[in-house]
């Protein structure tokens, strides 16, 4: 077994282990972990099956099959980045809307305080 295959298997298995461990500890939600799990599983399968890796590499036109692993890992990282960008965009919108609602509530509270103070002053007079 060559060093590239050993490193690929170790890297893929480590990725899967870390994702499962983060999910188990509650540090990573399942819905965000799906792409990580899928990418780790695909990389592990391709790392274990040299013939499948060589077949796919030939079909794609890649002459050095282990470089296909890097290409697939890169594509998965792009997908994960795109997914997190969409999530962050949604959270940014929610954050902006919440800040606007808080500002409106503060304004309404200040108006109620002023109205209350006026009523107290008018009773005292």
Task: Describe the overall structure.
- The relative contact order is 0.08.
- The chain has helices at residues 3-24, 30-48, 50-60, 66-124.
- The chain has four helices and no strands.
- The protein has 125 residues and is mainly α.
- The longest helix is centred in the C-terminal third of the chain and has 59 residues, at 66-124.
- The protein has one domain (3-124).
Write a concise synopsis of the structure shown:
The protein is mainly alpha-helical. 89% of the residues lie in helices and 0% in strands. The N and C termini lie far apart (95 Å).
What are the salient characteristics of this protein?
125 residues
List strands and helices in order, with pairings.
Elements: H1 3-24, H2 30-48, H3 50-60, H4 66-124
Helix pairs in contact: 1-2, 2-4
- SS-based class: mainly alpha
Task: Give the overall shape, derived from the CA principal axes.
Answer: rod-shaped
Low-confidence stretches: none
Strand content: under 5%
Radius of gyration, taken over Cα atoms and rounded to an integer in Å: 27 Å
| Number of structurally distinct domains | 1
Number of helices, counting only DSSP H or I runs of 4 residues or more: 4
- List the quaternary state of the chains: single chain
Series of H and E elements: HHHH
Q: Let me know the number of strands.
A: 0
N-to-C span = 95 Å
Strand count, sense and barrel status of the largest sheet are: none
Summed over residues and divided by their number, the pLDDT gives a mean of: 91
Q: Give the helix level as a range of percent.
A: over 70%
């Amino acid at each position: 077994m060559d060093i590239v295959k050993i490193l690929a298997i170790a890297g893929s298995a480590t990725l899967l282990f870390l994702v499962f461990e983060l999910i188990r500890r509650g540090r990573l939600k399942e819905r965000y972990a799906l792409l990580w799990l899928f990418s780790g599983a695909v990389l592990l399968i391709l790392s274990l099956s040299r013939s499948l890796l060589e077949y796919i590499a030939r079909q794609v036109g890649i002459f050095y099959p282990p470089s296909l692993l890097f290409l697939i890992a890169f594509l998965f990282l792009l997908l994960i980045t795109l997914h997190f960008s969409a999530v962050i965009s949604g959270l940014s919108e929610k954050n902006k809307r919440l800040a606007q609602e808080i500002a409106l509530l503060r304004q309404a509270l200040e108006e109620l305080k002023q109205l209350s103070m006026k009523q107290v002053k008018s009773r005292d007079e």
